[in-house]
Write a structure and sequence with these properties.
This protein is mainly alpha-helical. The chain folds into two domains: 332 residues, Up-down Bundle (Amino acid/polyamine transporter I), CATH 1.20.1740; 103 residues, no CATH class. The protein is built from 19 helices and no strands. Helix 2 packs across helix 12. The longest helix has 37 residues. Keywords: Amino-acid transport, Cell membrane, Membrane, Transmembrane, Transmembrane helix, Transport. Belongs to the branched chain amino acid transporter family. One of its GO terms (cellular component) is plasma membrane. It holds the Pfam family Branch_AA_trans.
């Protein structure tokens, strides 16, 4: 019989999950959004929380309700070959190709780079990223202790340092956001721009990736039945995302206040650095560096752990967990030394392809009980979504790559045919049409399948 988890254990699980989610993008994008939104920051926050908090929560809940053992199990409802492809691409994208290297480069850019002369940047990045991934590897090679490392140690330290910065800024505000004019898209569509900003956190794909870590942690606490694991997964997910929403609100408000003194900054990293040095001088820069490094360390540990465990499960006759963890750390170290901007430039097109497939998979698994997780509906939605998402992928490629591939032959007609294509959401209507077709096929199924 499954044991009932205590409130303290739920808090610990939620802390672990929050710690895995909350990384570099979760810090920089709300602060930057607050600066640009100005007086319209609250509609922007609402949109941001819808996708930056709501989607990750739905992802965790969908995994729990569908009683899936992980991403591969969820995606298998479309088909096993598709599941293998989607699982590998998603984990590599939010793992060693983009997200894991970004954790090291962001920590370096915020905490170390402002203190160095330009001529020492490359060598310093190499040394810093080597030390960073040695620490990540140390914790990743001990996956059974991830609940302790992240939930009890790294995450509380991160929250302590972040709390010092944000509370100080709220008690001694630099200005009144209500007096600041919104800029750009935040003037007339701050809510919808907030929705798009929430995509940048990458937390919806991460929710599917971290599901296996949360489920393993719950099992290690003595819960084994699928129904009990499902219920505990949902409860821990709700607690974790509530904390995320609260911190997003604080970061957005603090970012907006800083504009009264420093004007618009280049990015969220600069916003946070300005806030830290404004209140605490050089010590503030050090404090911010510690905060960013702790945030990124715990996310990198979770990603390495999830990626290694998943590839061992997908390819049991290939490498051991230890070998995969070492390989991913070495590969991430190499990619990190290309620099933060280059990583972000090449990750965006891949995310534009993956996000629609992630969203539709989450929603279908949430509602799957109503149509018995019928494969025809999953396939009917996924095919048109993938085709439209591929066009979003092409549209997000760097201009030079688009010119080389002559993508205008596809993108110009798509802009005239697909609603919302210019917003990067051209997949919405094709997905809805696919859902209608799938439901019709389900309704017409032979009576022997009822």
């Amino acid at each position: 019989m499954d044991r009932k988890l205590s409130f303290k254990e739920y808090i610990l699980l939620a802390s672990m999950l929050f710690g895995l989610f909350f990384g570099a993008g979760n810090l920089i994008f709300p602060a930057s959004m607050g600066q640009q939104a100005g007086a319209n920051l609250w509609p922007a926050i609402a949109g941001f929380c819808l996708t930056g908090v709501g989607l990750p929560l739905l992802g965790v809940v969908a995994m729990g309700l569908s009683q899936s053992e992980g991403l591969f199990d969820m995606a298998s409802k479309v088909g096993r070959r598709y599941s293998l492809f989607f699982t590998c691409v998603l984990y590599l994208t939010i793992g060693p190709l983009f997200a894991i290297p970004r954790t090291a480069t962001f920590s370096f850019s915020v905490g170390i780079l402002p203190l160095l002369p330009p001529e020492h940047e490359k060598l310093a990045l190499c040394v810093f990223s080597a030390l960073f991934f040695l620490i990540v590897l140390y914790f990743s090679l001990r996956p059974s202790g991830i609940l302790t490392w992240v939930g009890k140690i790294l995450n509380p330290l991160f929250l302590l340092f972040l709390g010092i910065l944000t509370v100080t800024a709220l008690l001694r505000p630099m200005g009144d956001p209500a007096a600041l004019e919104p800029t750009g898209a935040y003037v007339h569509m701050s809510f919808f721009q907030g929705i798009l900003d929430g995509y940048n956190t990458m937390d919806a794909p991460a929710a599917l990736a971290f599901g296996i870590v949360l489920i393993s942690a719950i099992r290690n606490l003595g819960v084994q039945s699928p129904r009990a694991i499902s219920g505990n997964t949902v409860k821990a997910g709700c607690l974790s995302t509530l904390l995320m929403a609260a911190i997003y609100c604080l970061l957005t408000v603090v970012g907006a206040q800083s504009r009264a003194v420093y004007g618009l900054c280049a990015d969220g990293g600069e916003v946070l650095y300005r806030i830290g040095t404004h209140y605490f001088g050089t010590l503030g820069g050090v404090l911010l560096g510690i905060t960013a490094t702790l945030a990124c360390l715990k996310t990198a540990i979770g990603l390495i752990t999830s990626c290694a465990a998943t590839f061992v499960e997908l390819f049991p006759k290939s490498l051991s967990y230890r070998a995969y963890a070492i390989l991913f750390c070495l590969f991430s170290f190499g990619i990190a030394n290309f620099g933060l901007n280059r990583i972000i430039d090449f990750s965006l097109p891949v995310l534009m392809f993956l996000y629609p497939l992630t969203i539709t998979l989450i929603l279908l698994c949430l509602c799957g009980g109503w149509f018995r997780y019928d494969r025809r509906i999953f396939v009917a939605v996924t095919i048109p979504t993938a085709l439209a998402a591929f066009l979003d992928f092409l549209k997000a490629l760097p201009a030079g790559v688009q010119a080389f591939l002559h993508t205008e032959a596809l993108l110009e007609p798509a802009a005239g045919i697909l609603p919302f294509f210019e917003l990067g959401m051209g997949w919405v209507i094709p997905a809805c049409i696919g859902l209608a077709v799938g439901l019709a096929l389900y309704a017409m199924r032979p009576k022997t399948q009822l």
